[in-house]
């Protein structure tokens, strides 16, 4: 590969948790806890401070938590491209953390380059949420997020959490209080705008009001579609229920003391900036940021945060990623495999010449390549040098009025019910 741009990159398996605290299994809290993670390189330390907002840029842009997608490999790639985007883990069930205490690094460890990073957990049992948060806290995540939006039958059905939790705001408030009591970083909720027939704006507001007034939760990520739990697939749940951005913007009006991030149906930096121009506190992208990381993440720092446009190229990103990838292969027995480590790269040449031919060659190389380096040597010849060595380009000019239209459709202002005021 051309050039020699191998920057310092700490593979996440170099994270060694020191002096992991043993916490009580009950739900009584209040004791101070300090812990750190020591790193093999440069003595880098995770710190758990409630002032993450002061140490990192605000969460104007974030990448959504996506099961089997936003793993350590993808987050490593994302951070090589964008230094400012907020990254979320995959949803990790509280029970997984609680019952894997001897193997926590496999689920919770990450490289220090990934800050700012948010851990998303799922569950509905308060004791397990407490224990999971206790165990995760020493890893130094910058925020803990509870999943109240996943419509998957495995989560919302048999597990009775995910988006089903929106039907029980009292439980969510209790869960958020338990989580907050066991960490010293902010907590947040990711939810939909409704569930099945419980999809009125007032019902959404009832949920937001109860959770925010009965727990320390001040940040909500709003997927602007409701969820249908009548057997349709998670994929259809991202398409069939209509987007109602007007609900999101009404929340900004009716809850001025809270922070809201908008999510759902936003696919470009142009739309990110349009949403923010209309007042969005933050914007979260999911599959667009995964499927086209160069044109999405590559523009975040300059177009969203106003930083100078970086001169990094895809070739340089791949050189750094190869160092990481080869260092983690087989860390846990047979896994991760070459295929798993390379998976996040398959969108790196989105819409570029020879992209399809390259992916075909990569698919064939999976059968015999045992290192990331050998796979790159065998396949990257398919991609023109003009693509590999082209720097990130500016976001195209233009505007979108989808959010302007949404603001013209705002529902009537929310009025807190008398019984809710008494309860509060």
TrEMBL record:
Pfam families documented for this protein: Dus (PF01207)
One term of GO molecular function: tRNA dihydrouridine synthase activity
Domain DUS-like FMN-binding, chain residue ranges per copy: 63-370
Entries under NCBIfam families matching the protein: PRK11815.1
PANTHER family (UniProt xref): DUS-LIKE FMN-BINDING DOMAIN-CONTAINING PROTEIN, FMN-LINKED OXIDOREDUCTASES SUPERFAMILY PROTEIN
Protein known as: DUS-like FMN-binding domain-containing protein
Upper lineage: Eukaryota, Viridiplantae, Streptophyta, Embryophyta, Tracheophyta
């Amino acid at each position: 590969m051309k050039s020699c741009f191998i920057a310092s990159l700490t593979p996440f398996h170099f994270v060694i948790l020191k002096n992991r605290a043993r916490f009580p299994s009950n739900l009584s809290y209040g004791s101070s806890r300090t812990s750190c993670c020591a790193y093999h390189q440069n003595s880098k330390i995770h710190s758990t401070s409630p002032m993450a907002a002061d140490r990192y840029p605000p969460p104007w842009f974030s990448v959504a938590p996506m099961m089997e997608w936003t793993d350590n490999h993808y987050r490593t790639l994302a951070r090589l491209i964008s230094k400012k985007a907020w990254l979320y883990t995959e949803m990790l069930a509280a029970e997984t953390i609680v019952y894997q205490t001897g193997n926590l690094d496999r689920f919770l460890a990450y490289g220090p380059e990934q800050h700012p990073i948010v851990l998303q957990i799922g569950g509905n049992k308060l004791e397990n949420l407490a224990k999971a948060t206790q165990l995760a806290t020493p890893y130094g995540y910058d925020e803990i997020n509870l999943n109240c939006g996943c419509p998957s039958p495995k989560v919302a059905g048999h597990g009775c959490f995910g988006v089903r939790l929106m039907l029980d705001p009292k439980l969510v408030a209790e869960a958020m209080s338990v989580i907050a009591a066991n960490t010293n970083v902010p907590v947040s909720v990711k939810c939909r705008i409704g569930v099945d027939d419980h999809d009125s704006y007032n019902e959404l507001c009832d949920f937001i009001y109860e959770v925010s007034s009965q727990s320390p939760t001040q940040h909500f990520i709003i997927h602007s579609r409701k969820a249908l739990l009548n057997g349709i697939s998670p994929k259809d749940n991202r398409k069939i229920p209509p987007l109602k951005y007007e609900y999101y913007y009404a929340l900004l009006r009716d809850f001025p003391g809270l922070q809201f991030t908008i999510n759902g149906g936003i696919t470009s930096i142009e739309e990110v900036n349009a949403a923010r121009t209309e007042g969005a506190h933050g914007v979260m992208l999911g599959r667009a940021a995964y499927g086209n990381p160069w044109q999405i993440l590559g523009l975040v720092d300059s177009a969203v945060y106003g930083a100078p446009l970086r001169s990094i190229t895809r070739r340089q990103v791949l050189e750094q990623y190869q160092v990481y990838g080869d260092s983690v292969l087989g860390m846990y027995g047979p896994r991760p495999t070459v295929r798993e480590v390379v998976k996040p790269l398959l969108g790196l040449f989105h819409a570029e010449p020879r992209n399809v031919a390259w992916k075909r060659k990569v698919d064939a190389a999976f059968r015999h390549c045992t290192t990331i380096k050998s796979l790159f040597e065998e396949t990257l010849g398919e991609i023109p040098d003009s693509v590999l060595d082209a720097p990130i380009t500016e976001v195209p000019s233009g505007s979108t009025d989808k959010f302007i239209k949404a603001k013209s459709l705002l529902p009537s202002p929310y009025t807190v019910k008398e019984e809710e005021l008494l309860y509060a």
